[in-house]
């Protein structure tokens, strides 16, 4: 795969719910950060997206968004001012703590993202830098709120593993690895630990109807949740 295109892009359509329904393709995409000069991906309905939700911080977004000419771009800085919760258990992965910090410290921002995607008049793209952590939590919110099975949400999250080497090369955090270099040396940067996303889903499960209940507890209305399922689920 070339580096002049999104390398961690996928459609959140086709995911199974607990009732056997599937999420609708072409509603919401997730990806790593777009760059100027990227080729359009093939086979995605409605591309370019009508709405882009950029989850990166101010230091990561000095220039105009490369998709701004074609898409309405919303910047939601989900980590801005965020304090990660204290965690004394050394067996807990750092990303687990980070994701918990997002749920505890930035619920209004996650609700804002949900509403941008809900109100999009066409496909929406959600991305951060790698399309892994911030995007992973947001994707879990969107999928769970539609009733997608936890195992499917976890499977979508770990799909990023196979793309992270290219993502890091695009971010210029990792050079081209010469033959014989052990990729375990960059394993921590590339990790998508299931523990981290499982704990997110456990938090949702503390509420009626999983993420739908979590969102309702932070101001999302029953009408909004109903419209989300109507929009995102196939009949």
Helix share bin: 25-40%
Structural class, by secondary structure, is: alpha/beta
Q: Give the termini separation.
A: 35 Å
Global morphology: globular
- How many helix segments? 9
CATH class: Alpha Beta
Question: How much of the residues is beta strand, in percent?
Answer: 5-15%
Uncertain segments of ≥5 residues (pLDDT<50)?
A: 177-181
Largest sheet: 5 strands, mixed
Structure description:
It is a single chain. This protein has a 5-stranded mixed beta sheet with strand order 1-2-5-3-4, covered by helices on one side. It has a single domain, classed as Protein-Tyrosine Phosphatase, Chain A, CATH 3.90.190. It contains 9 helices and 5 strands; from the N terminus they run ββββααβααααααα. 37% of the residues lie in helices and 8% in strands. By secondary structure, it is an alpha/beta fold.
List keywords for this structure.
single chain; 235 residues; alpha/beta; Protein-Tyrosine Phosphatase, Chain A; five-stranded mixed sheet; 37% helix; globular
């Amino acid at each position: 795969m070339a580096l002049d295109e999104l390398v961690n892009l996928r459609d959140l359509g086709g995911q199974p719910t607990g009732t056997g329904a599937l999420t609708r393709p072409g509603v919401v995409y997730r990806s790593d950060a777009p760059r100027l000069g990227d080729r359009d991906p093939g086979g995605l309905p409605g591309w370019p997206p009508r709405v882009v939700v950029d989850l990166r911080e101010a230091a990561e977004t000095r220039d105009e968004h490369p998709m701004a000419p074609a898409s309405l771009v919303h910047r939601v800085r989900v980590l801005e001012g965020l304090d990660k919760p204290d965690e004394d258990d050394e067996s807990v992965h750092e990303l687990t703590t980070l994701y918990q910090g997002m749920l505890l410290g930035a619920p209004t921002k996650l609700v804002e993202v949900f509403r941008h995607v809900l109100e999009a008049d066409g496909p929406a793209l959600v991305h951060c830098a790698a399309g892994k952590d911030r995007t992973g939590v947001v994707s879990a919110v969107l999928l769970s709120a539609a009733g997608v099975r936890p195992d499917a949400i976890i499977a979508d999250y770990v799909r990023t593993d196979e793309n992270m080497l290219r993502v890091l090369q695009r971010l210029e955090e990792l050079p081209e690895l010469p033959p014989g270099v052990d990729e375990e040396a960059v394993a921590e940067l590339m990790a998508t630990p299931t523990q981290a996303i499982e704990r997110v889903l456990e938090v949702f499960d503390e509420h009626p109807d999983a993420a739908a209940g979590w969102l309702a507890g932070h101001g999302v209305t029953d009408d909004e949740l109903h419209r989300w399922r109507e929009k995102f689920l196939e009949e």
